[in-house]
Write a structure and sequence with these properties.
This protein is about 50% helix and about 15% strand. The protein is elongated and about 80 Å long. A hairpin with a 4-residue loop joins β3 and β4.
């Protein structure tokens, strides 16, 4: 009877251990973003947590295999499924980020005009303390962008400047950007977008210029922090273009 109680207790402890380790791995990969976003941890600490998440996730899977091989009766379908899901999330998320980082250039300033990119004006004071300055990143960035995102080019429309400025403002609102400045006279619209997970602030400036019967529209998106944006700025510009054309009915 005593041996039976002891065995039952050991089974319970093994199940709890596997679940706790997998939960720890899951939290190590999901909490750093919100903790950084609300100023509770430094960025370096948040990123370091991903490494430990992968290690802990692998440890959880190893413990789970030991449990299934030698202590199968201590497991249940639910506990095994939860442990696998938590562990795989902890392992896959950082590896996907690493894969993305290796597949895109380490740049953070993207523009549809690489020769004379739109300049930030009203947003400039908001970036005063940002590690990345408002100045365009330069020729090397332009070369890398041209190779990685050749589809990002100056847009041409036949609508009036006033119509385009209004449509751009509406597009920014549809995308939940924080509008900072709209100047119909100069055709300059500035806004800030925040990433969901870490709350990184990226700034956007859109410029509308007259060229004969056409209006040229250029968009620039730049991160305030980080040498690489993991492709987010290019993605943002692509999303903006699609939404703008939708607003314009094109």
């Amino acid at each position: 009877l005593i041996d039976g109680k002891l065995l039952k207790k050991q089974r319970y402890h093994m199940k709890i251990l596997v679940l706790l380790v997998s939960l720890a791995a899951f939290l190590l990969v999901t909490l750093p973003g919100p903790l950084y976003k609300f100023g509770l941890v430094e960025l370096g600490t948040a990123f370091a947590s991903f490494k430990y998440a992968v290690i802990t996730g692998i440890a959880a899977l190893i413990l789970l295999m030991i449990q299934l091989l030698f202590k199968r009766k201590t497991s249940s379908f639910t506990s095994v499924a939860v442990a696998i899901i938590f562990s795989l999330i902890a392992i896959i998320m950082p590896l996907r980020m690493m894969s993305t980082a290796n597949s895109v250039p380490a740049i953070h300033d993207i523009s549809t005009d690489l020769t004379t990119p739109p300049e930030f004006e009203a947003i400039a004071p908001l970036r005063a303390d940002a590690p990345n300055s408002i100045e365009y990143a330069g020729n090397e960035t332009a070369k890398q962008q041209s190779k990685a995102y050749p589809e990002l080019q100056t847009l041409s429309y036949t609508q009036s400047k006033a119509v385009l400025v209004a449509a751009i403002e509406q597009t920014a609102q549809n995308l939940n950007w924080n509008l900072v400045n709209t100047d119909p006279n100069t055709g300059l619209i500035e806004a800030t977008d925040s990433t969901l997970w870490f709350g990184f602030k990226d700034d956007v400036v859109v410029r509308v210029e007259d060229k004969g019967s056409e209006r040229l529209v250029d968009i620039r998106s730049k991160s305030r922090i980080g040498s690489s944006d993991l492709g987010k700025n290019a993605e943002r510009i692509g999303t903006f273009i699609k939404e703008l054309n939708k607003v314009l009915g094109e």
